Each structure stands twice: as structure tokens, then as C-alpha cells.
């Protein structure tokens, strides 16, 4: 047959009837991983599986709290006496004992010297000051010049001052 030159392409015709389904093709390559979807609701718990094999023994734990005191048991038999212990340390000194009996009366002493005359018939007064911290008492003898029956250092005349020390309380 002789060759004829090829003409222009014609218009597309109507869609034809679908042909029979072809054979399943080979699987394609795995595509890249997609973006993670939203987290789903928590599912129901599954069934409990069988008990597993016991594991190795663990380390010893810390001691627990002390329990309550138990009821006292019956009294036991009397034991044998123990050995004598060493001598203990001396204890504190005991209280002072009662005073002894009064001694015999001594002989009368000699007459003392005559006292000097008083000062213009005035009667001296005494101011008493106790200091418990120092365990002493201070006596101040004075003439009450302003007549108020109280010691006034600025106006009264001091005749003498004495301090009496106490060594212990008599209570």
C-alpha cells in the first residue's frame, strides 16, 4: 500500500465504555511519615494477664516505726544475786547536825571602863539597809537634826557606819 500523508488530528470523540478491571498492581514505596494526629480518648483497661515469674529478692528496707507497748508478762522467778560492784563516789555533805549541849557557865569578867558622856541629851537613831545579794546589813547611826525621823544625808549628822556580814540564812 502506498503511503499517504498524515492529515490533521480530529476532534476528541465521546467517552467509550469502561473496559474490564485489570489485575492488582505491585505495592508502591512507603511514603514519608505524616504529621501526628490529635491524641485519642483513653481506652478501656485490658484484661489482667497471667502472673509473671517472681523477681530477685530486693535490698533490706529501713526499719519500721516502733509498735505500741505490749501487755506486761507474768513476773519471773527471782534471780541469783550479782557480784558486788566497785565503791561509789562519795555523796554530798549532809545537813548540819543539832547543836550540842550548853557548856558550863564561865566566870564573870572584869568591870568595863566607864562610858563617855552622851551628846547634849540627844538620842541617836539607826538606819538599817539589807543587801541580800551581798548577804550583809549596813547600820548607819545618826542624829536626826531636822526631826523628821528619817535619815537625810544632807542634814542629819552621821555618828558612825557598820557593816555586818551574814554567812548563811537562818530559815
Describe the overall structure.
It is a single chain. The protein is mainly β and 171 residues long. Helices cover 0% and strands 14% of the residues. It has no helices and 3 strands. The chain has a 3-stranded antiparallel β-sheet, with no helix packed on it. The radius of gyration is 63 Å and the shape is elongated.
Oligomer: single chain
Q: Topology as H/E string?
A: EEE
Uncertain residue segments = none
Mean pLDDT: 85
The total count of helices amounts to: 0
Q: Mind describing the biggest β-sheet?
A: 3 strands, antiparallel
How much helix is in the residues?
under 10%
What tags apply to this protein structure?
171 residues; mainly beta; three-stranded antiparallel sheet; 14% strand
Blueprint (SSEs and pairs):
Blueprint lengths: L124 E7 L4 E8 L13 E9 L6
Antiparallel strand pairs: 1-2, 2-3
Summarize the structure.
The chain is an all-beta fold and 171 residues long. The chain contains no helices and three strands.
